[in-house]
């Protein structure tokens, strides 16, 4: 990884805050729960269920696998 590069683990991007909270409440890895971030997409608010930042893709991947959920990683 390049210096200063960080990786975020994303479990979902949904348009319902309730759905995002419900999913986030089901995920716990090493005593940590995901947080919910929002993004605007064409006038719609997306609620993302994310963990991180992680300093390496491998670390993000390890936590993602430990969660038992489907996930993707972005920089």
Which helices and strands occur, and which strands form pairs?
Elements (H helix, E strand, L loop, with lengths): L6 E8 L2 H10 L8 E7 L2 E11 L2 H11 L4 E3 L1
Antiparallel strand pairs: 1-3, 1-4, 2-3
Total strands: 4
Q: Work out the helicity level.
A: 25-40%
Strand content: 35-45%
Q: What does the overall shape look like?
A: globular
Judged by helices, strands and strand pairing, the structural class is alpha+beta
End-to-end distance: 10 Å
Q: Which oligomeric state applies?
A: single chain
> Largest sheet, if any?
4 strands, antiparallel
- Structural Rg: 12 Å
**In terms of per-residue confidence, which ranges show pLDDT below 50 for 5 or more consecutive residues?**
none
Question: How large is the count of helical segments?
Answer: 2
Strand order of the largest sheet: 2-3-1-4
* SSE run: EHEEHE
Mean of all residue-level pLDDT scores: 94
Structure write-up:
The protein is of the alpha+beta class and 75 residues long. It has a 4-stranded antiparallel beta sheet. The longest helix is centred in the C-terminal third of the chain and has 11 residues, at 57-67. It is built from 2 helices and 4 strands, in the order βαββαβ.
Which keywords apply here?
globular, alpha+beta, 75 residues, 4 strands, 39% strand, 28% helix, four-stranded antiparallel sheet, single chain
């Amino acid at each position: 990884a390049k210096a200063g590069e960080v990786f975020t683990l994303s479990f979902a991007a949904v348009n319902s805050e309730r759905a995002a909270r419900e999913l986030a409440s089901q995920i716990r890895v090493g005593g940590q729960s995901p947080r919910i971030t929002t993004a605007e997409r064409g006038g719609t608010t997306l609620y993302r269920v994310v963990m991180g930042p992680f300093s390496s893709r491998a670390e993000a991947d390890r936590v993602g696998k430990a969660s038992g959920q489907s996930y993707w990683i972005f920089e």
